[in-house]
Records
---
Amino acid sequence: MWRATLRSRPKVSGVHVRARVTSERARSPGLPVVRTPRSAMPSAPPAVDLQELGPDFVRDPYPVYARLRAVAPVHHVRAPDGQDVWLVVGHEACRAALVDPRITRDLRRVDADLHALGSGGADSPALTHMLLRDPPDHTRLRRLVAREFSPRRIAALGPRVQRITDELLDAMLADGAGRADLVAALGFPLPMTVICELLGVPEADRDTFSRWSDEIVAPTGQEAMSAAYAEMVDYLRRLTAAKRDHPDEGLLSALVHTVDEGGDRLTGDELIGMAVLLLIAGHETTVNLIGNGVRALLAHPDQLALLRADPDGLLDGAVEEMLRYDGPVETATPRWTTEPVTVGDTVIPAGAVVLIALADADRDPARFAEPDRFDIRRDARGHIAFGHGLHYCLGAPLARLEGRIALRTLLERCPGLAPDADEAALAWVPGMLMRGVRTLPVRW
């Protein structure tokens, strides 16, 4: 056991946090650590280097997570981007961390360099949404938005999702090449079209939204991310003003004019923040649900054959197993500790950046038998691919709807579907937030 005190500025996904670290934990034999240079605070606690622990970590992080989970439910780690964070693993620990009020998503509660987010700080319209608020603000914002995500409204989108899917597959199959990039042909344009239509974003602007979203989710640099945020906010400010003057049937127009029983409504900045959240989360998750789901089926021909033989009986369960086995979100969006938090025998210091490994929680043998086996007949209920607690994904029903329709239609129209590239050659989305491939070459 050892004890160390450090004043540092760990950074994850563009966020710098000042933290005074006081930690006590056991070293586990065999876990590589990042050594702090003698010239830079020698009392710093070592961080487990995820890529040293598993050189293939980005493509397949699951063995690394399992190795960490066998030692303890939380670890001080160095992520592939070189930043130090506290990583929570295991189903029970992850569920508990997701609902712990001391581990916050509200940046206003921590001593953070908020402008380093690249979005203008905590009061930027891009950040005034419910994912970055705790109760009571979160409760208020979610109440105002949730009414527009009713089961009836989502179910009513089914026919339109089916038409978009059919049109995209028509185009994919039309050239007679017999091969395509499934992400570009179906996985990306389907949810992007759906969420843009839902919000009332003109078709001509959707490629621009795609570029902004890619930069924000997987930044190429601080300046580029800042520009993407600024351009998106400026565009949405104009768009919400137009919806206020000329209402239509879109979700954004509905949010502009929503007033609850007490007369409360979203402010202008809250509308922009909600639109940013819906546009990014509303398609990134589904892109990777479709991509990861198809990859899993192609890698397990027996499961693909089962699903083809009984889509009516197995499709819903298959989608849940895809979410559990290789879900679209690897770690929940970063959180910060407002005070020291004990997880297992480890104290996470106040002001620390915390990543909660949803991917590992759903591969925990304490919750799912033979968790590394892909089995579409498994009862996968209880997975936390869409989170848990008050920040559970509001758009989960829409993602499931899109996933079911896309997968069923693809398998019906492409009976000979097969991979057209080696798995090891696929390029992965960088970072530890989203889990998915940039391209998915297939043939039929």
---
Amino acid sequence: MSIDTATAARVAKLARIRVDDDALPALAGEFNTILGFIEQLSEVDVDGVEPMVSVTPMRLKRRDDTVTDGGDAGSVLSNAPDAREGFYAVPKVVE
């Protein structure tokens, strides 16, 4: 796939980036270089390669998946400007 100056101008407009007309050929060239790198990546054989999250081996910290009441509701509601009957009270917005 090749990007021409018209497509580069459209991408710049969609990204809300002002690009002078004389800089559009260079921008199109940069886009083409990036697309060339992406095409090179698609040629790599990744069959049998496990996906990884990080370059260093590590395990995520895990906790038990248990249902709780969330702790102390009173201390949470103490920060609210208006709380009634154990809930946040908010102004009515729908008639």
